TrEMBL record:
Membrane topology: Multi-pass membrane protein
Source organism, top-level taxon: Bacteria
One Pfam family recorded for the sequence: Na_H_Exchanger
Organism encoding this protein: Cyanobium gracile UHCC 0281
Alphabetized UniProt keyword annotations: Antiport, Cell membrane, Ion transport, Membrane, Transmembrane, Transmembrane helix, Transport
Record InterPro entries: Cation/H_exchanger_TM, Na+/solute_symporter_sf
Membrane-spanning ranges: 30-50, 57-76, 88-105, 117-140, 160-180, 240-258, 270-298, 319-339, 351-370, 382-399, 419-437
Keyword Transmembrane helix: yes
Subcellular locations according to the entry: Cell membrane
Domain spans labelled Cation/H+ exchanger transmembrane: 52-448
Protein name: Cation:proton antiporter
Length: 459
């Protein structure tokens, strides 16, 4: 099979030289649709440099830096075509596995003593409750069959509404902590630890819940609906169990590597990337959840004991931090580059309604419904409910959602293109609105709740 583009031309040149032919002065033209490698490298380098300027400006006005990166990618979208759809999907999986592994590394069990059970309940139950409520709200206001008010929505089937809601289930720890740094002195340390823990753990929960929704709503051969539900629930539990087990096993490989193989801090980045990718790959090959495995591997690795204080999980986390930042920026940037700006306009009204429903109804209600399990005061829970910033995971999951819509049971093939465009646009608009509104108001909400009194009382 001939090799594409410039590489094919270079290979032909080398073969000609090896056979004694003269080197051609003019290289063969690059195949249509292939971006020249120097131009691609120049573009990518310029884009990443631009994200630094955008991030600095975003932080000055109190907006999460990743929102600026997302809008920057959207702004330059019409003039840049660098990645195919398949490449984007692979980059998203790669990025999420590293992000979740690092999220596990950031979770210190000692910092959440006294509320570990509540943190898990909030992370798992909160995602499921908020997603179910948001899905029903989207369907109610969008479907005349539900007896609701259309509010200008195009009719959305219940399955599509649940897919959109499942995409938006998990929160972004990086974006939340980035904003909370502005008022770190005014928030109790235990509450900040809870927010970070919940935001980290609910990422794999959101990913698995979307997989469950896709399994329950898409075509599954000739199986009956009852069989489909049973099979998908079994697969859901299998993925969780296998992911947990493999993550624990791989963490011991990481522990052995830190104690026996790593001799210099320069090798920590290699180890971190290797363990993150291995945990994902092994779990997926064995039928488990790679994302659960990556998170658990990082979590267990952080909470093992080690012989060398200098070569430790804390040092590994600090080494991975720049790479993790680049990975998160890449997720937002790629999504901005892959979305056509004009296609977002029809979904803007729906996006605003869904964003308000998520911020004002679904997220607060899910947190308050679980308040009975909380060791925190009500005003602490109110801050947690407003800390539900959406980020990299919902954007990455939207690609999987879009691929699932054509396979939904009972879907009209003629409506698929508009549903795909509308669903993707809603997720994009909700993430942007959520980061903008909650990113700007979160410091003010923290001051309004007077959480600084708890900080003063603890000192």
């Amino acid at each position: 099979m001939p090799l594409p583009g410039a590489f094919d031309a270079s290979l032909a040149t080398m073969v000609a030289v090896s056979q004694g032919a003269e080197t051609p002065l003019i290289r063969p033209p690059i195949a249509p649709g292939i971006v020249p490698l120097p131009l691609m490298m120049l573009t990518i380098g310029g884009i990443f440099l631009g994200t630094l300027a955008i991030s600095r400006f975003s932080l000055k006005i109190g907006v999460p830096a990743i929102l600026g990166v997302l809008l920057f990618g959207l702004l330059i979208n019409p003039s840049v075509t660098l990645f195919s759809h398949e490449t984007i999907l692979r980059l998203q999986v790669l990025s999420l596995s590293i992000l979740l592994f690092n999220a596990g590394l950031e979770t210190d069990i000692r910092s959440i003593r006294g509320f570990l059970e509540y943190g898990i309940i909030l992370a798992v139950g909160g995602v499921i409750l908020s997603s179910l409520m948001l899905g029903m709200i989207i369907w109610f206001v969008a479907s005349p069959d539900a007896g609701g008010i259309e509010l200008g929505f195009r009719q959305v089937p219940l399955a599509v509404a649940m897919l959109v809601a499942a995409c938006l289930g998990s929160t972004d720890a990086g974006a939340t902590m980035n904003v909370l740094q502005l008022v770190a002195h005014a928030i109790p340390r235990r509450l900040s630890a809870l927010v970070q823990f919940e935001s980290s753990v609910n990422d794999p929960t959101g990913i698995l819940f979307l997989g469950l929704v896709i399994g329950l709503t898409t075509v599954q051969g000739h199986s009956s609906e009852h069989q489909v539900v049973v099979e998908q629930l079994q697969m859901f539990l299998q993925k969780i169990g296998s992911g947990l087990l493999i993550g624990v096993v791989v963490s011991y490989l990481g522990r052995f590597s830190l104690n026996r193989l790593v001799r210099d801090s320069n090798q920590l980045l290699i180890l971190g990337i290797a363990i993150g990718l291995i945990s994902y790959g092994v779990a997926e090959l064995m039928g488990g959840s790679g994302f659960i495995s990556a998170y658990v591997a990082g979590l267990m690795l952080r909470n093992h004991t080690y012989s060398n204080e200098r070569i430790s999980p804390e040092a590994l986390q600090q080494t991975l931090l720049p790479f993790n930042t680049m990975t998160e920026i890449t997720v937002f940037l790629i999504f901005g580059l892959s979305v056509h700006p004009l296609e977002l306009l029809p979904a803007l009204p729906e996006g605003i309604v869904v964003a308000l429903a998520m911020m004002l109804v679904a997220r607060p209600a899910s947190v308050l419904l679980l308040q009975r399990f909380s060791p925190f005061a009500l005003r602490d829970s109110l801050l947690v409910s407003w800390c539900g910033l959406r980020g990299a995971v919902p954007l990455a999951l939207s690609f999987e959602m879009v691929d699932a819509i054509p396979r939904l049971r009972g879907i009209d093939p003629a409506s698929v293109p508009s549903l795909v465009q509308n669903a993707g646009g809603i997720v994009f608009c909700v993430v942007v609105i959520n980061l903008l509104v909650q990113g700007l108001t979160l410091p003010h909400v923290a001051r309004w709740l007077r959480l600084s009194e708890e900080v003063a009382g603890a000192q």
